[in-house]
Amino acid sequence: MNIDLEQIVKPLLKWFQKEKRDLPWRKTNDSYRIWISEIMLQQTRVEAVKEYYKRFLDELPTLKELAMVEEDQLLKLWQGLGYYSRARNLHKCAKILIEQGKTELPRDYEKLKKLPGIGPYAAASIGSIAYQLKTPAIDGNVLRVMTRIHEDSRDIMKQKVREEYFLKLSKIMPNNTRDFTESLMELGALICLPNGFPLCQSCPLSFICQSYKNQTMLQYPVKKKIEKRKREEKTILILEYKDKIAIQKRPDNGLLASLYEFESINEKLSLEELKKYLNQKKIKIMNIKQLKEAKHIFSHLEWHMVGYHIICKILPEKEYLWVTKEELETKYSLPTAIMIYAKDLKK
Ligand code: SF4
């Protein structure tokens, strides 16, 4: 359906002025801060990001400080947000820019897109929010609004669909690029909701929306089914010896790279099976306590875990990094997936 999108600009901006949420990253024009917020907001809820955003910028207020920080400290600041590759890419990116003698992110969409961790969406957001570039940010929220307005039943995972909306929206983008980008995102987050019925009665774009007119809102957007997640079972072993806990660093590549973890076994063991296993590994036990079962969902993978807290009688043969509970909490970054067991240690 061909729609004159120009008509959405004024009502959308007017609505945004009245309804926008008061968010910390909306109070700054600093591209560094806007970049940090955009990366944090990917795959994380706004409410959860607020606290991390403040803490991160209190510690690392400039691009230079981010470039200089130790990776372990950076991952600690990120702990709990998940998707740690985002933090590593921020780090890489800051180092590249500082090495090039820059003090801020490039003011160019194509150059932004070439930096680690900055894809077309983040480049467009940073460009339009911080630098007044006419680069509309096309994310799931915006695609939902657009496909509903147009009754567009094409698969939104297709690059071509995204590119087409990028082009359409860049043509109608007003000079106030920041408000335009944020207003579309805000409409998707507050009104044109992803699950269940959108709040069309309160929508400033209902006058033009084809799916509202035909009451077909729930048929859009069309998204190809994601492949089923792989399931893995694990037994997490918290080994304790003389009030210290055994941890080890994960490899520098792959899932949860460079984070610290407890010893683990790639299957779920019962208490009896575990005792046999420990015996084979010559780990002498003073006490053993079964912890609750837990599940963690990654985008492509599910971990189904059972945990055991084991007080060792003698130092196990395998080399570990032995740390106090306080160090574990303040110095080493553990993946969110196993935090539930680390928290258990506090009790
Ligand atoms: S009218 Fe309803 S479906 Fe259409 S854009 Fe607004 S909230 Fe979304």
Q: Can you walk through the features of this model?
A:
By secondary structure, this protein is α+β, with helices and mostly antiparallel strands. It has two domains: 7-219, Endonuclease III, domain 1, CATH 1.10.340; 230-346, Alpha-Beta Complex (Nucleoside Triphosphate Pyrophosphohydrolase), CATH 3.90.79.10. It is built from 15 helices and eight strands. The chain has helices at residues 9-19, 31-41, 46-59, 63-68, 71-78, 85-99, 109-113, 120-130, 140-150, 159-172, 177-190, 210-213, 271-280, 325-330, 336-346; strands at residues 230-241, 244-249, 260-261, 263-265, 285-290, 294-297, 301-312, 321-323. Strands 1, 2, 3, 4, 5, 6, 7 and 8 form an eight-stranded mixed beta sheet that branches. Strand 1 (230-241) and strand 2 (244-249) form a beta hairpin. The longest helix is centred in the first third of the chain and has 15 residues, at 85-99. It is elongated. It starts with 8 loop residues before the first helix and ends with a helix. The site of iron/sulfur cluster (SF4) has 14 residues, from helix 9 and helix 12. The site of iron/sulfur cluster has 14 residues, from helix 9 and helix 12.
Indicate the radius of gyration in whole angstroms.
24 Å
Report the bound ligands by name, code or SMILES.
Answer: iron/sulfur cluster
Q: Kindly, what is the distance between the CA atoms of the first and last residues, rounded to a whole number of angstroms?
A: 60 Å
What fold name stands as the CATH topology of the largest domain?
Endonuclease III, domain 1
User: What about the largest sheet?
Assistant: 8 strands, mixed
The second-level CATH architecture of the largest domain is Orthogonal Bundle
Annotation field: number of helices: 15
Tell me the helix content: 40-55%
Quickly name the level 1 CATH class of the largest domain: Mainly Alpha
- In round numbers, the mean pLDDT is 93
Shape field:
elongated
